[in-house]
Amino acid sequence: MPSRTLPPPPPAKVPQREGTQSIERALRVLRLLASTNYASGMSFQDLEDASGLNRSTLYRILGALRAEGFVERHPASGLFFLGMDFLALGSASMNRFNLRELARPHLVRIAEQTEDTVFLSIRSGADSICVDRQEGAFPIKALTLNIGDRRPLGIGAGALALLAFLPRAEMEDLVARNARRFPSNPAMAVENVTALVRRSREEGYAFNDGQVLKSMCAVGVPVPGQTRRQPLAALSIAAISERMRAPRRARLVAILEEEAKALGAALVARGAQPLGG
Amino acid sequence: MPSRTLPPPPPAKVPQREGTQSIERALRVLRLLASTNYASGMSFQDLEDASGLNRSTLYRILGALRAEGFVERHPASGLFFLGMDFLALGSASMNRFNLRELARPHLVRIAEQTEDTVFLSIRSGADSICVDRQEGAFPIKALTLNIGDRRPLGIGAGALALLAFLPRAEMEDLVARNARRFPSNPAMAVENVTALVRRSREEGYAFNDGQVLKSMCAVGVPVPGQTRRQPLAALSIAAISERMRAPRRARLVAILEEEAKALGAALVARGAQPLGG
DNA sequence: ACGCCCTGTCCATATTATGAGAAATACACC
DNA sequence: GGTGTATTTCTCATAATATGGACAGGGCGT
Predict the structure, then answer these.
(1) Cβ atoms of A181 and A188 closer than 8 Å
(2) Which of residues 148-177 of B touch A (CB under 8 A)?
(3) To 5 degrees, how large is the angle CA B99–CA B105–CA B108?
(4) B126 at interface of A, judged by CB pairs closer than 8 A
(5) What is the pLDDT of residues A101-120, one digit of tens each?
(6) Fewer CB within 10 A of the end CB, N or C, for chain B?
(7) A58 at the B interface (CB within 8 A)?
(8) Which domains does chain B have, with CATH numbers?
(9) pLDDT for A139-171, tens place per residue?
(10) Tell me: the pLDDT tens digits for A2-16?
């Protein structure tokens, strides 16, 4: 080894920190606990390995999370879990602008009139999230979406309605983003989604003809904000194909439109704003 | 003012801290955002007032929460919201030991056989939490519980089943705790709950005869763990009183028992342990 | 123009979180 | 019962981190 003077090891520490190391770490731990591969709980060892944190630090973090009820520890097994309070937090996160509360009667009314299953979706970034659902009485149920499910904008009637009625520039940007996110998925290709959007705009509603699930169809409309170009949410109905043919489909759309308009007005009155991301 | 030498102001700081100030603060902020009175979003000012934190500190905390997606800020209005990821976290918290996933087919089967509404509950501390629900086809629905709802142990069929089949000492402790928590509620009085527990043990199932909602009845059974004295969860059925009379009620209980036994076996096989608190 | 309030950023400071290690505790395997 | 291993808690010196006061840029009403 030539004894060259070692170049003074530059601190090279690119802290890049914004002064919130511990919070960041704590939230990461929560994310770990939420990852579905560990639904059956995580041991301390699991957490230590997966997080890469120092033991002492991890104990301290877990202690804090536990003290606030965000994490629970099973006494017998010693496994760590997300605290049950996340149920409450989860509901709260869905209730932006009281959207869910205000929308519920509309969902119920639509489900009663149509006997099919109704969904309420909102936009989050380049995704659509199903926020609420109301099952209809018709025995063959089309339960494509569970509450909390994410779909890229454009996939499914609700997600397509959210996308299609955005300002053109924003819409095109999102379509491009999703095409990049899912390069291997032909359904997300720019041409394909653009075609769906065009048709939705022409017909005034989003129509999903079995793209997600064979033999299941759905229609969706935007919930208008100040203007129709600023949708606050989307309402959609799913049913088996037979119940979605031309004459009935128009009726369903009319019902959706009516409720969406009323809901939109109520939301605007309460100062709701379209969600971006 | 006598110029007495000021007694050296003892630091008197009782930090009492466990070295997790910032995490504690961050979690408090999340709680604030989740509080329902602010469902329509909180301005920075709101948060500052409600949290009592220094502005800079609050900015940093919110920045960290936002960077991790736990908090979102609405661009137009500047309002802060819980991030939509809480939906996912909420689902995850319900899926302990994959309970929800494993239980779902059982719920569906019970709902199909009985046409009534079925609930899955677990214990959390001195409460029961409704973790999942499956609606039956019968047109008059008894939707006493929403997913995520908490009830003190003993109130309602599911919560009573969870309580009644615990080891006696534990049960009595919990009954006493809840009586103290709700001193003004006669339904939670020790004598009352004890009587319900006794009957449940004698008959082998929990029966709620309109205590929660007039004209609505429910039956519940524990999902057994290693032994029946270590219930992992509870299954219950709610219906209008007419559908809960003697002959039918026995059938319902039999169906519940069968599914609960199967579910319990599956859970035990996966190493599930009863939840405490 | 002026004051007032709200919003956001900077930066010196000491308070706080950190992590190594030791000590205590539980647990398994003979 | 005894030995070894894993788990959990505690202590403590240290530096890195989070803190909060000060400052600066609007917006708005008067």
Answers:
(1) yes
(2) 148
(3) 120
(4) no
(5) 899 899 989 999 999 999 99
(6) N
(7) no
(8) 21-87 (1.10.10.10), 94-269 (3.30.450.40)
(9) 777 767 877 788 999 999 999 999 999 999 999
(10) 433 333 333 333 444
